[in-house]
Amino acid sequence: RINKQRLWDTLMEMGEIGGTEKGGSCRLALTDLDKQGRDLFVRWCEEAGCTITVDKMGNIFARRAGEDNSLPPVVMGSHLDTQPTGGKFDGVYGVLAGLEVIRTLNDNDIKTRAPVEASVWTNEEGSRFPPAMVSSGVFAGEFDLEYGLSRADLDGKTMGEELKRIGYAGDADVGGRSFKAFFEAHIEQGPILEDEDKKIGVVTDAQGQRWYELTLTGQESHAGPTPMPIRRDALVGAARIIDMVNRIGMDNQPNACATVGLLQVFPNSRNVIPGEVFFTVDIRHPNDKILEQMDQALREGAERIAEDARLEMEFKQIWHSPPVPFNKDCVDSVRRATEELGFSHRDMVSGAGHDACYISRVAPTSMIFVPCEDGISHNEAERADPDDLAAGCDVLFRAVVQHAND
Amino acid sequence: RINKQRLWDTLMEMGEIGGTEKGGSCRLALTDLDKQGRDLFVRWCEEAGCTITVDKMGNIFARRAGEDNSLPPVVMGSHLDTQPTGGKFDGVYGVLAGLEVIRTLNDNDIKTRAPVEASVWTNEEGSRFPPAMVSSGVFAGEFDLEYGLSRADLDGKTMGEELKRIGYAGDADVGGRSFKAFFEAHIEQGPILEDEDKKIGVVTDAQGQRWYELTLTGQESHAGPTPMPIRRDALVGAARIIDMVNRIGMDNQPNACATVGLLQVFPNSRNVIPGEVFFTVDIRHPNDKILEQMDQALREGAERIAEDARLEMEFKQIWHSPPVPFNKDCVDSVRRATEELGFSHRDMVSGAGHDACYISRVAPTSMIFVPCEDGISHNEAERADPDDLAAGCDVLFRAVVQHAND
Ligand SMILES: NC(=O)NCCC(=O)O
Ligand SMILES: NC(=O)NCCC(=O)O
């Protein structure tokens, strides 16, 4: 069994970096705080006897040697970056559960046949640099390196520049090597396990998602003397599209999600009719056909609303991550380990995207979910129970050892 | 007659300060650029032989002595601050038309009985520091000095601090002295004069307006695994209120205006359900009864929408500027001067608020409008015809000389 207290303590220590008043963490990708988090992880792994490799996307691999180091490793991991209103568990848990597995192997002097690695994937959240899971995407060949390094934040800073600045632009090529298996432990980020009082989610699939950027252009003009009937108010158009996006989500229940998370108004002055609004749309569904129908409804609805409001519209889909079926063997290993350990469980579909989604294209992959309080994530109030976190880590330990000795 | 070319040249020279690529000016209140504009105005006035007074709100008065300097002055003026997407004429024209009147009096060696002053009022736009017309409001006793100096921008910087920083926190008390009359020349900022091919708007009234600040609070949560039916999405609530605000404007045609100009989303991340949205509402009508009904519709509608969306709402009215009837004598002087000069004209109600609105509470006041292209203002494309600007300035000259010799 892994060391529950040690796992918890590392989570709390990492959570202090960028720690917020409300008990969360704000450690946006490739900021100084992200660097501090990475440095701490690297130090811990070196202390545990691991060899560190950093690739050109800043992905970090901490390797514990096996008996036969010519075998591909079994890899665990997730991400250390957070949302602006991030919690202490999203991503971080999957990374530090990997470290805890390595420490437990050390404690018990266990030699695995294949090497075992704990990994950190750069900019999984996609909050500072869209889209999400960029660097596991480059690793898996979904994006090319140039695309990855040129992702830019709202100030125009690129991932390439920021990786250099914080000293994590590594030498290793991104991808091009095989994993025996990849396992990502994660909090569920939704309410299902808690509602059904289950300890472990055996993740069989991840739902699909599409991200969009819309720019509506009208004409800025004075909020007083400009008659309503002749206005071209970009924010009124955006408001109608936001309400429609919500309706598209509601109309495709159960399971559909549709969200406008980011919006910027120009010139953003109280007595000026907004001339331009930039905003994003995120739609999701486990079934790609329905996701496609939601996409159609979005395109047609936005077009109609923009036309009615006499606005110009730039409409760009910037990302499509189709539904992911995880590897049957890996899923079975997780289910078996859970049962052997006597934990309650259920199969489930991930509502969030994860690095495991892209890695599943190049390696046998699956995920282990543990409950989180009230299903809340991407929120400073995100919480998970130390027992549940330990349970997920024990499942990870079993699945990893099994695959490493296979 | 005033000097058309000189008036145009001063407008163009002032417009260069904060000049934008699209031909407008961005000179937000109490920025370094506002200081530069003020310095230029002060230099021009001193060169024209005026004495400068700056009051504690940074209002500037450039006085040309009269025959009897114990008489209260006739004052002209407007503001030099602009919107983020400001033009070269809004406000600036009323200030520099005042300077042009003084220069024309000098050219023709005209001595007026009462002194004549050109004035600049601080932060008329209310874009950086809400509400609008703050400093003419303090002058007129609508706001006390402490309120004026403590107005803060979105970064928390106050007018008091910024006045000190740019060297325009003057010594003179704000208000407490009388004007024989006050005249403000301004571009119309709406389409009526152009549509009806009239050169001069004789402004009889200004419509009323109310400004609000709303904060909706829901719960930030993950855009993927959080089921639609349990979300508390602050941006969806805001979107519905924005659409309703627009409907309140449309339902009260003709004449009503209703605008959401400023909106900020928190945490503003693509895959986070917005937990908080702050936005402003601006409603206007020439009839205070109807404005009151619009206020009721806004309050009740917003309450209902917030409740339906399970959001908390903070609803604050931050400003009420009731409809203003201008002084009959001053209005008649403007109409008479216009007729004597042979310019086409019509009476009209101002859609925008102006410093003249507050000054009218403490002095006989009226306004002179000239057409602006396509009725567009608060936009870098704002344009006015040199002939129209000169015509308005000629009307101002006649009205001022008449009142100064009265
Ligand atoms: N796990 C997680 O929060 N991923 C962010 C990417 C997404 O929005 O699904
Ligand atoms: N004239 C002008 O643009 N004033 C700003 C105040 C308002 O919004 O009415």
Detailed description of the structure:
The structure is a homodimer of 406-residue chains. By secondary structure, chain A is α+β, with helices and mostly antiparallel strands. The first copy, chain A, is 36% helix and 22% strand. Chain A contains twelve helices and 16 strands. Chain A has helices at 4-16, 32-47, 92-107, 134-139, 145-150, 159-166, 192-195, 234-251, 288-308, 328-341, 355-359, 386-404, and strands at 51-54, 60-64, 74-78, 116-120, 181-187, 200-206, 208-217, 221-222, 257-259, 263-266, 272-273, 276-285, 312-321, 324-325, 345-350, 365-370. In chain A, the strands form three sheets. In chain A, strands 1, 2, 3, 4, 5, 6, 14, 15 and 16 form a nine-stranded mixed beta sheet that branches. In chain A, a hairpin with a 5-residue loop joins β1 (51-54) and β2 (60-64). The longest helix of chain A is centred in the last third of the chain and has 21 residues, at 288-308. The radius of gyration of chain A is 22 Å and the shape is globular. The model of chain A has no long low-confidence stretch (mean pLDDT 98). The interface between A and B is large, with 72 and 72 residues. Bound molecules: N-(aminocarbonyl)-beta-alanine (2 copies). One N-(aminocarbonyl)-beta-alanine sits between chains A (90, 124-126, 132, 352-354) and B (222-224, 271).
